[in-house]
TrEMBL record:
Repeat listed as a keyword: yes
Record PANTHER family: ADAMTS A DISINTEGRIN AND METALLOPROTEASE WITH THROMBOSPONDIN MOTIFS PROTEASE, PAPILIN
Pfam family, one: TSP1_ADAMTS
Keyword line: Repeat, Secreted, Signal
Gene Ontology cellular component list: extracellular matrix; extracellular region
Gene Ontology MF, one: metalloendopeptidase activity
Name listed for the protein in its UniProt record: ATS13 metalloproteinase
InterPro entries per the UniProt record, alphabetical: ADAMTS_ADAMTS-like (IPR050439), Sperma_CUB_dom_sf (IPR035914), TSP1_rpt (IPR000884), TSP1_rpt_sf (IPR036383)
Subcellular localization, as worded in the UniProt entry: Secreted
PROSITE patterns: TSP1
GO-annotated biological processes: extracellular matrix organization; proteolysis
Amino acid sequence: CHPVPKPESRMEVCDLSPCPPRWKVTPAGPCSSSCGLGLAVQLVTCVQIHQGKEVLLEEHLCPVAEKPLTSVPCVIRTCSYEWSFSEWTECSTSCGNGIQTRQDFCLNPLTHKQVNPIFCRHFPKAIVVRGCSAGPCPEQVEGTGAPGAGLQAVTAATHLTTPATAKEVRHKDLDLAPSPVPQEQAKTSGGVCGKLFLNATGVINMLGVESSDCTVAIGRPLGEEITVSVLQSSLNCSAGEVVLFSGRMMWRTGCRKLPLSLINSRTNTLIVKQRVLLPGNGVILQYNSRTATKKYYQDCDKQLFGPQGEIVNPVPLPGQRQEVVCRTFITVAPRHRVAIRALYIDLGNESNQTHFNYILVRDVSTMKTMVFHGKQQFFWQSTGSQAEIEFHE
């Protein structure tokens, strides 16, 4: 450009007014699941560029409707686990109609070894009970039907606890109800399956129960944890009999050396499921509760055990961080299910629905979640006996 006349250098004043406030998102944290679908938490802050520098502002100064989610879905890799099954047992009857059963277990197809069932709980599972026929019984009149005609359909009945016809009770009255199972009944072998135990200590006799799958639940107030010791076990490990302990923060199965083990729930609830094949087998458990060694809940969280009641969304306490998510935990007897009906919802106007205010309901047995916005009234049902509700903003 040397031959061309060079223009004079000059400076012009540019607009120095602050840029409008905007949302800033930091990279998401680690995924909550090692494989499959999980959640990653990201930090969302309100900032403004002023004279070339980034200034942190209060959240209400940024457009509320445009606030990004603080939790985003994430997938690290596909889970490499699958359900596998044992061979079907012989028909339960020597003639006429009966049932066949088989045991399920979670398998790592890469190592061909069994792993904890928690790794397979997100995958569909085939049936473990089916009808069978061993031919007509001798007393049956010949020609009344072909062998196998009229097979009995085997179904699993579920009981639903709904608030539709229930007396409206404030949630504070249901924080800890008296145990529905007297201590004397808890020690008998006939009626423990499907029960919820709320006492501070007790003995649960699961020996010789009639059901091959027997599930009990233990519940205590928030701030406590449960310890379980096995007093006696007659499980046949080689036949696949097992007992499973599961909570919000732990999962453990066992069969061998059970009388020497001590199980800690780490939270205030614990589910115990026993699977037996041979009549008369089972375990006897002794449980105790104590103050939790670590705090696993927010001060505004609630724990409900009652069969019905009214839930009013909790709010952060004075002085508590505004980003705290308040939760309500619901635990009912294992033989029941949870139904939640929204009677009244007001989560703000249409512009605030997308990211700011919402209710999240989680089915604990499958870890599947549903999100409800705005003034959307809903009716939700669980597949298991535990549910969680999160009230965001």
